[in-house]
Every structure is written in structure tokens, then in C-alpha cells.
Amino acid sequence: MVSATAIILGAAVLALVWAAIQFLAISKIPVKSNEGGEADETTGLTSEGGDADATTERLLEIYTAIYEGAESFLKAEYTVCFWFVLVFSAIVLILVSWGTGWDWVRGAFTMVSFVLGAGTSIVSGYLGMKVAVYSNVRTTVSAQKSGWTACFNTAFRAGAVMGFALCGLGILMLYLTMLVYRTHYPQPEEWIYLTECLTGYGLGGSSIAMFGRVGGGIYTKAADVGADLVGKVVHGIPEDDPRNPATIADNVGDNVGDVAGMGSDLFGSFAESTCAALVIGSSVGVSDGWDAMVFPIIVSGVGVAVCLVCSFLATDILPVRKEEHVETALKVQLISTTLLMIPAIFLTAFGFLPTQFALKAVVGETELTIAPWMAASCVIMGTVGGLIIGLITEYFTSHSYRPVREVADACKTGPATNMIYGIALGYKSVIIPVVVLALVIYGSFRLCDMYGVALAAIGFLSNLATGLTIDVYGPVCDNAGGIAEMAELDPAVREKTDALDAAGNTTAAIGKGFAIGSAALVSLALFGAFVTRIRHSSDDALFSDGVNMLEPLTFAFLIIGGMIPFAFAAMTMKSVGFAAMMMVMEVQRQFDERPHLLDANPTERPDYDACIKISTEASLKEMLPPGAMVILTPLLTGILFGVNALSGLLVGALIAAVQLAISMSNSGGAWDNAKKYIEKASPDSDLKGKGSDIHKAAVVGDTVGDPFKDTSGPALNIVMKLMAVLSLVFADTFYAINNGGGLFHMA
């Protein structure tokens, strides 16, 4: 029988090789405009003539400007992250070592895991940005060809590079770290310490994701909101018009926020869900060996192979030939990977888990007897639950369905009714996903205790490569459309990229639904791992009967925990507003001082760099306070008030964050697609189409929805996860202070 190590490392290498193959396919597309000549059927390029050379030069100029803007921002952001990692790794080393009775090996191993997690997250985000920027302009060039296959495949392959490279890197780094630590902890009885040291990997990934999500989200939405308010609302110029000084910054933001930020976020989810499952299930290794213990990582490895096979459906077996095929192709990816994962999970469980194995319950003294079908069922519940949440998210955010069309109709009576309908839609969209999450949690807990919840979180992320492919596809198409507009290509090219982007918007919303659902399960699993670790440290003196939420201190901090997501959302929303105001003033200043910019064919270019500088400086400054709040709140609560207070804080934050995240993300997605639905309408229809008062009302909703769906909403995923994983990493430290009572030792 093939060993777990062979499958895991093989899957990681396969993912990285496949990402390289996809990148090579994209790199074969030269950046050369097809305008002004007859396109060659095989290469998509044109013969010399017309304005092709001038347009090609303009394409390269725009591509270079976006690349340099994204590069400069990420370098500045990752410089801040570097100093954070340097300082916080020292804190991890000292506090973990002290909490474990000055066990410097455990402290050092946890610190190394933290640094590796942070480094892998940075590499994942940076790689995603580079590939997205590299592919955006090539998607624009491909859109000049006849048909839909070439441009869709280019954007899809760009997403695949990010999806498979991130999964391969994540699995490879995590498992190699485990193998190295195993040389120091060779005995199965010691593997509990190995898994506890590994939790630093998840903490490192989520810490960088916090800065990437918040910093990138503020950057992209400051530019987007500023460009919309002055350009579309005040002066009536189209989106991505080259006359708008903020348009390059807006396109840069798509790459640093929607690509780099999302990549770091989902890498963090993968790392944390795996760490939680390994900590809770470490006792499996004692009785049944290494291969059984690393079952959660095997599932992730099998998921890579499934996603690779299903990707051929979109690019080769059922290629996109018409506009209406675009959204179907992306949806088929999600459904096919989910369906194929079901038998794959059962085969994996029966192949690597013993016929039955014992697992100590997180609460109480019961020892559970678990069969492979039970573990497989927990993973499948997560996988299917993720698909259901994704499809429900699509229903509430796609203009193919009634909810978004109702929001579009509400624009007939102005921006106020548009806002009311959009907010109501967001609140309503919470109901089914929360019920699904509750059912998944209940079912998996009944089967395998908290280990089952951790496996369900693994199931949510089992087709992560496909989820990321679809997530990155959207921003690539968005940028491709922006480049087509700025290069003043034929309007038909922009119409094609807009159609690709409209499908991308919906699938991006589906991806956010996946991310939020998985974050909720990951956070709960991390909380279970935290309780497990406190029980282990206290020799069952604490939490042997669970966490009593009716303890006064625990309940008080439950309420405080519920407030944290709202405080975080307020801080990030205000940060976007502050940065957008600066952007608006800069754009208007340029229009006032250089009125010829608004001419139909201006002879001068705006100062794009000034707007890029505003977004960069504002995002770097504004990302620090919300990040500090999320990191310091659980740390100070555990140190000052103890583990009971911290338990209440984590549960309260989880309950509030998941519901607020879903409502904000879906409201923003609905406003965006309601605007696009109106833009598709003809001037003599009920919705009047582009440029009408109805459209202007929709633009207001879309502008407000931008920070909802791209800054605050998605970043709330990380609030849940980061607070929980930080508590897990420092669990021994918190217990070491007055036996878990904290410095204040409050009862």
C-alpha cells in the first residue's frame, strides 16, 4: 500500500507542476494588439498595419503601470509584515517557552512554524499578484480574437496557477515541517507536542492574511470608490476611462486585494483547519500510527488531484463557446469537484484509517470508537455544505435570480430604496447558510466529537484549488476589461470582458461564501483544539466538563466577543471612507487644474502615480489599528482575565462575525450585480440602462457595497480565525498564569 507520505508529497509536487504548466500556457500569448489587421487563427496576432503597433504600445504601458503599482504596494506592505514577523516571533518564542515550563525546544519549534506560515502566506500572495498582473493584459489580447474560448481559458488558467501553486506550497511546507519535527518527537506519545508546535504555522498564515486582506481591501476600495464618485457620478465618464486619474490605482487594487489578499486568507484557512484537526486527533497516532493521524492532510492531497481532473472540463472537454456558457463552466467546476470528492473521501478513509480507532472526547472522559465511514461522513458534510452555501450565495448575488433584480427595481425610486433593499437582502441571505453550518456542526460533532467538526472544515476546503481558481478568475477579467477601456480598444472587446467579469463577480461571491463558511468551522475547530490543549496542560483540572457559558466572567466576555466584529467592521469601513475622501479630492484637483483631461480626446495623461501613492500610504497606515485590535484582544484577555474569559470572547466573536460577514459580502455583491444588470438594459426598457438616473442610483449602492464585499466582509473571516488560532498557540502560556485564572484572577 502507498504510504501517506508518498501521497501527500506527490500531491504537493503535482500541484506545483500543474501550476507551472498553466503558467507556460499563458506565457505563450504575446502582448500584441490585434487591432488594425487580420487575426491569425493560430496565434491570435495580426499582421502589421493599422493602429496595432500604437495600441500594443499602449497595452504595454498600462500593463507596466499596473505591475509597478502592485509591486510597490506589496513591497511596502510586506516590509511592514517582515518587521511584525520579526517582533512577534520573539514574543512567540518567549511566551510559549515560558508557558511550557521553559521548554525552549517547543518554543523554538512553534516560532519556526510561525515564521514558515507567515513566509508561505507572503509567497502565496505575491505569486498570485504576479500571475494575475501577467495574465490580465493577455486576457485582453485574447478577447480580441473571435469566440470566447481563448479569453476564458487565459483567465481560468491564471486562476489555476494561483490555486494549485498555493495548495502545493501549503501542503509541502506543512508536511515537511512535520517530518522535521518528528525527528525530535519520534514516539507516538510525543506527537501531541509536535502538533501543538505546528499551530504556529496557522498563526503565521493568518497574521499575514490579516494585513493582506485589510491593507489590500482598503487600497482597492479607496481607489474604486474615489474613481466612481468623481468619475461616474460627478462627471459621467465610464468606468476605467483613461481620463480618470484613479483608474490605474483601481486596477492595481484588484490584484493586491482580491488576489493577494484572498490567497493569503484561504491559505490561512487551510493551515488552521489542518492544525486544529491534528491537535484534536493527535491521540489517533498513539494507537493507530502516523498515516492515520495525518488523514486530514491526505484529504487535502486527494483534493488537489480531483480539482486537476475537473479543470479539464472547463478548458478542454466542455470549452466555453458562447457568453451563456461562461457562468455554467465555472459553476460546473464547483459541482463536479464536490461530487467527485465524495467517493474519493470514502476511498481515502477506508484506505488510511483503521477499521476502528479510539479518540478521546474533547468534553468529558468518554473514549469514542470511530469507524472510517464516520470520519468520511464528517468530511463529506463539510464538502457538500460548502457547495450548498456557495449556491445559496449565488442565488442572492447573481442578477440571473430574483433577489438582485428586486434590488435593481428598487433603484427606480432612487439610491435610498436601493440601499434599503440591498441591506435587507444581505440580512436575509444569512438564514440558510447559518442553518447549513449548524446542521454540519451538529452532524459532524455527533459522529466524531470536535474532531468531526475539524474534519468538516477540511471538507469545506477539500476543493480549495478550484475555489481559488474561480476567485482569481474574477479580478483577472475585471482588470482585462479595465485595460481594454484604458487602451481604447474596440467596444466589443470591453463587452466580452464585461461578460466574463459578470460571471466572475458571481463566482467571487460564491468564493466568499465558501471562505466565510470554512472560517466558521475552522474557528470552532480551533476553539475545540484550544479546549483540548488546556485540558492537557491542566491534567483535566479545567474544561473536563466543557466550557460553562453561564459563568459570570465567561458570559460577560461572550457579549464583548460579539462586539469585536462590529468594531472591526467600523474601523475598516471608516478607513476606506477616509482614504476614498483623499482620493476624491486628488482626482477633482486634477480635473480642476487640468480641465482638458475631460475632453473626448485629451492630449495629456492624468497623474496616475499620485493616486497610487494615496492608496498605498492610506492602506498601510489604516491597516494597523484593526490588525492590532484582533491580535491584542485575545492575547490581553487570556493574560489578564484567564481562559474562561477568553473562551467567552472566542465564542461571541465567532457567532457575530460569521453572520455579519455573510450579510456584508452578499449585500455588496448584490449591489454590484444590480448595477451591471441595469447597465445591460436598453434605454427604452423599464430600467433605462447606462447613464440614466436609475443607473446613477445603482452606482451609489455599488459604491457603498464595495467596502462591504471587498474589505470588511471578507476580512471578518480572519477575525474569527486569527483570534482562535492565537489563543490555541498561547494556550499553555495562559494556563501558566494563575492556573488559567489570569493576572486579575477573577472568578
Cα radius of gyration in angstroms: 25 Å
Spatially, the strands of the biggest sheet line up as: 1-2
Structural class: mainly alpha
Share of residues in helices: over 70%
**In terms of per-residue confidence, which ranges show pLDDT below 50 for 5 or more consecutive residues?**
36-50
Number of self-contained structural domains: 1
Q: Give the CA-based shape.
A: globular
Task: Give a quick account of the main beta sheet: strands, pairing sense, barrel closure.
Answer: 2 strands, antiparallel
Number of strands: 2
Classify the beta-strand content into a percent band.
under 5%
Q: Tell me the series of helices and strands, N- to C-terminal.
A: HHHHHHHHHHEEHHHHHHHHHHHH
Put simply, the count of helices is 22
Distance between the termini: 54 Å
Overall average residue pLDDT = 88
What's the quaternary structure here? single chain
Short recap of the structure:
The protein is 80% helix and 1% strand.
List keywords for this structure.
globular; mainly alpha; transport; translocase; single chain; 1% strand; two-stranded antiparallel ribbon; 747 residues; transmembrane
Explained architecture:
It is found in: Endomembrane system. GO terms for molecular function: diphosphate hydrolysis-driven proton transmembrane transporter activity; inorganic diphosphate phosphatase activity. It is a multi-pass membrane protein. There is one protein chain. The protein is an all-alpha fold and 747 residues long. It has one domain. Strand 1 and strand 2 form a beta hairpin. Helix 19 runs parallel beside helix 21. It starts with a helix and ends in an 11-residue tail after the last helix.
